[in-house]
Write a structure and sequence with these properties.
The complex is a heterodimer of chains A (about 180) and B (about 650). Chain A has four helices and seven strands. By secondary structure, chain A is of the alpha+beta class. Chain A folds into two domains: about 10-145, no CATH class; about 150-180, no CATH class. In chain A, helix 3 (about 155-165) crosses helix 4. The relative contact order of chain A is 0.22. Chain B folds into three domains: about 10-205, Aldehyde Ferredoxin Oxidoreductase,  A, domain 1, CATH 3.60.9; about 250-400 and about 405-415, Aldehyde Ferredoxin Oxidoreductase Protein, subunit A, domain 2 (Orthogonal Bundle), CATH 1.10.569.10; about 440-630, Aldehyde Ferredoxin Oxidoreductase Protein, subunit A, domain 3 (Orthogonal Bundle), CATH 1.10.599. Helix content of chain B is about 40%, strand content about 15%. In chain B, the strands form six sheets. In chain B, strands 2-1-6-3-4-5 form a six-stranded mixed sheet, with helices on both faces. Classes of the chains: A alpha+beta (about 180), B alpha+beta (about 650).
């Protein structure tokens, strides 16, 4: 994959952990948005933002789902910030075999924040809209960047399946399903 | 396909150690919605009046409201029901927080616990997998300590845990069930949990909750959030700051406590301290709060952040609290806020109700002062004021010495002590300690609410109507201008006419017919919330809330698919309210029990009071004994209640009950 220079719209969600009141509205609405049909169900376990909460340590940390990874990290880090100790995977966005977060609960397929890609377009992400505490705020700016094309969601999903079952089995299954018309 | 609800209850028999996932009848949802409504139905069907509070046959139900676990903001209430050791009536104590939605996502609308385990146990619910686990090692631990220990041993940091402390284990009549940020505190539900030898219930769920009409439903949620934002910028003028916005009274965020400290009573609910709130006190208490409060906290899917993390030791959060529990210990002990927040930490770990506990302790010290109890009853009690309260709390939750008597609450303790102690248990309705409030002139609206509220707690029946008129007609006219929440225009007229003094002031105004309507409306809204699991803080409690009677039918029907309009919702609510009363009537509730705390008002009006109660009973479709008439029961499809009440001689045939 070759990198190239181009204009890019950078969308940033700013997370102010001190403002988070732990309500999980972001998880509720994200999972509702991604239900099919839209908003027909909700389930925080499917959300692409998860709030790590440890109330008795006064620790609240919203984290967005990033890319799928096949293997967990070899080394881990613990952060201590303002007297709060954050667990080894606390800040990590990966959908990773070492933990439950950012996977579909029934299929284990990886989840990733798509900034509410939706039709019609949603300008301000739903999690930001529903965070009245303003712990999540949204910024858009334009930047010139060098960017490597990223694997699509489907690729990540297939890779995850392949990591579990092997490419041969996945390819077999795809061929079979395609023949049945994908039903 | 079931929408909003899961369609299953989890039935656990602790005597036999059995667990069963039981499908529910959708017709019951149509009849009662959920939460309190279906709890009341289960009690009617399965807990006859012969069963008393500490019988294994007493059920302990954790019933989530119909909309709990949906994206509807603030829908997170679990209604905990059992026969109360305090009132001996059907209890419905509510908790917010996170436990209810988690149970819903685990696939259950209710957890129904019966029997009694021979050994201490806790429940672990992980979706379809349910285990009754040994809890001997958790005995004696505080409620939050228990929750923490369970999360660790399960390796489930995100499990939601409802647990009891020492008070519940020792069946203190005002023991609570604690759940971290929230608790079911009233009426001793924690004692019944302890009696069942159930230390905790841990839940983790990962299933979907479905919505019938997603687009319509979501639009309503978005509109409510938009309204909440507007309301945050426009507190209601002329109302004390903690009640001017939405949510529970905002006592974690707002420091001004002039209203509570000067208008509410200190000690054993007797002493008013005019002029208490000086600049020095305000500064000192603000400093305490700013130092000890480390974060404002919300319940599940709600932006209101009524709660707070409080730090009283080296931890950044030693416990969480909200609302008036901020002041109950401080005021009970005539102390300061620092003491109040510190002892509340112990009280939360022990799991006691923050209204009843401080009052019971202040009551004990009054009895000592009056010579009804003597020093011999308090061996080893420290001499300093604060020390005494810590000492008393400890005795009570362990039921040691005098603590064993006090653990029954002021009403039952006074019965046991005798020697005139009864007069000191003066702040109760239906045998339960109330807000420490002593006022001058009888308010007809509050009179009826104190008399007839079956939750036995004024905050669970008051709300949408202003507590008092505003000083000028202009202010009142301005207030009613944007007030779409009222059932109809008459409510506005009554308010505009309501004066602070003169002919159109309390106790004569609002007139009885208007008073009935106002009380009924406020109570109705609470019964709607108790069935849907909506927090009162966004609906039945504050002035001008986002959710109200003209909006809620559509919210409920779009979520659940039920065919429900305003008439239908009124009917369901009336049915639920009547069924709660029916449960209590057959447990011996009578008109005699329906009165405010003896000394709540200085100026009383026996004739007017009788007229008010008569008219309200009639308005409700009850006879003059407070028993629903045959017609009322028939109209609500509660024929089975008629049959039972007649058989028991509670609903008497023509003539006896004087049905007007
Ligand atoms: S919605 Fe905002 S305040 Fe609530 S948990 Fe998410 S980030 Fe925190
Ligand atoms: S931006 Fe959209 S997809 Fe991403 S976490 Fe928020 S709601 Fe979910
Ligand atoms: S209004 Fe307050 S008490 Fe009610 S659900 Fe929201 S945060 Fe909790």
């Amino acid at each position: 994959m070759k990198s190239e220079k181009r204009k890019k719209v950078v969308k940033t969600i700013r997370i102010d952990v001190d403002k988070c009141n732990g309500c999980r509205a972001c998880e509720v609405i994200c999972s509702a948005l991604h239900a099919k049909p839209k908003y027909s169900s909700n389930n925080p376990a499917r959300s692409r933002i998860r709030v790590t909460r440890d109330p008795l340590s006064n620790l609240y940390l919203p984290v967005y789902a990033g890319d799928y990874t096949a293997a967990e990290c070899a080394g881990r880090d613990r952060y201590v910030i303002d007297g709060k100790e954050y667990g080894e995977c606390a800040f990590c966005r990966a959908s990773c075999p070492s933990r439950e977060a950012f996977k579909e609960p029934d299929s284990d397929l990886p989840l990733k924040c798509d900034l509410c890609e939706s039709d019609p377009t949603i300008e301000v992400p739903m999690c930001v809209q529903w965070c009245l505490a303003e712990a999540l705020t949204f910024e858009v700016r334009e930047e010139e960047v060098e960017e490597e094309p990223k694997p699509e969601d489907v690729d990540a999903g297939l890779t995850a399946l392949a990591d579990r079952h092997g490419w041969d089995k996945v390819a077999d299954a795809l061929r079979r399903l395609a023949k049945d018309g994908g039903s | 396909m079931r929408y909003a609800e899961t369609g299953f209850n989890l039935e656990v028999d602790l005597t036999r150690g059995s667990v069963e996932r039981v499908p529910t009848d959708p017709r019951l949802t149509a009849h009662h919605l959920g939460g309190l409504g279906t709890n009341a139905k289960l009690f009617w069907d399965r807990v006859p009046p012969e069963v008393s509070h500490f019988d294994p046959e007493n059920l302990l139900i954790f019933g989530t409201g119909l909309l709990v676990g949906t994206p509807a903001p603030g829908c997170n209430r679990t209604v905990v029901s059992c026969i109360s050791p305090q009132t001996r009536l059907f209890a419905f104590s509510m908790m917010g927080g996170f436990w209810g939605p988690e149970l819903k996502h685990a696939g259950y609308d209710k957890l129904v616990v019966r029997g009694r385990s021979p050994e201490p146990v806790y429940l672990w619910i992980r979706d379809d997998r349910v285990e009754i686990r040994e809890a001997r090692h958790l005995k004696g631990l505080g409620s939050l300590e228990t929750a923490e220990a369970i999360r660790q041993e399960l390796g489930e940091p995100h499990a939601q845990v409802a647990s009891i402390g020492l008070a519940g284990e020792n069946r203190v009549f005002f023991a609570s069930i604690e759940q971290g940020k929230s608790s079911a505190s009233r009426c001793g539900v924690g004692a019944v949990m302890g009696d069942k030898n159930l230390k905790a219930v841990a839940v983790r769920g990962s299933k979907d909750v479905y919505i019938a009409k997603p687009a319509e439903f979501l639009e309503m949620c978005n509109e409510a959030l938009a309204f909440i934002k507007v309301r945050a910028k426009s507190p209601i003028p002329g109302v004390m700051p903690i009640l001017a916005g939405l949510g529970s009274p905002q006592e974690m965020a707002i420091h001004d406590e002039k209203w509570h400290t000067e208008n509410f009573a200190w000690g054993n609910a007797r002493v008013r301290r005019k002029g208490f709130w000086t600049k020095d006190v305000a500064e000192q208490w603000t400093g305490t709060m700013e130092t000890m409060r480390t974060r404002l906290l919300s319940c599940h899917n709600c932006p209101m952040k009524c709660g707070a993390a409080i730090s009283v030791d080296t931890r950044l959060c030693s416990y969480m609290m909200k609302c008036f529990s901020k002041l109950t210990y401080t005021m009970g002990a005539f102390s300061d806020l620092d003491f109040g927040l510190r002892i509340a930490q112990k009280a939360t770990e022990h799991g006691v109700d923050a209204f009843s506990a401080p009052q019971t302790m202040a009551f004990a010290l009054e009895l000592l002062e009056a010579g009804i109890l003597t020093d011999a009853d308090f061996p080893g009690m420290p001499a300093d004021n604060e020390g005494r309260f810590y000492w008393l709390l400890d005795r009570i939750v362990r039921r040691e010495g005098i603590g064993d008597v006090l653990a029954d609450g002021t009403y039952w303790a006074a019965q046991r002590i005798g020697k005139g102690a009864e007069a000191f248990a003066h702040n109760n309705i239906k045998k339960t300690e109330q807000l420490p409030l002593k006022l001058g002139m009888l308010n007809p609206i509050y009179f009826l609410m104190y008399c007839t509220g079956e939750k036995a707690n004024i905050t669970q029946i008051e709300g949408n109507y202003p507590q008092a008129p505003f000083a000028t007609r202009e202010e009142r006219e301005a207030f009613v201008k944007d007030w779409p929440q009222v059932p109809d225009e008459r409510f506005k007229e009554w308010f505009v006419e309501w004066e602070l003094r003169g002919e159109k002031s309390i106790p004569q105004y609002p007139p009885p017919d208007a008073t009935c309507e106002i009380v009924n409306w406020q109570e109705k809204m609470h019964y709607v919330d108790d069935a849907t699991g909506m927090c009162a803080g966004l609906s039945s409690f504050p002035l001008k809330p986002p959710f109200h009677i003209h909006i809620l039918p559509k919210l409920i029907s779009s979520a659940s698919g039920l065919d429900l309009d305003e008439t239908g919702l009124n009917q369901v609510t009336k049915r639920n309210r009547t069924l709660v009363r029916a449960n209590n009537l057959r447990r011996g509730l009578t008109r005699e029990d329906e009165k405010p705390p003896e000394d709540h008002w200085k100026n009383r009006f026996p004739e007017l009071e009788k007229q008010l109660l008569d008219e309200y009973y009639r308005f409700k479709g009850w006879n003059l004994d407070g028993v629903p008439t045959r017609e009322t029961l028939a109209e609500l499809d509660l024929g089975y209640v008629t049959e039972d009440l007649v058989k028991r001689g509670i609903l008497k045939d023509e003539g006896a009950g004087v049905t007007p």
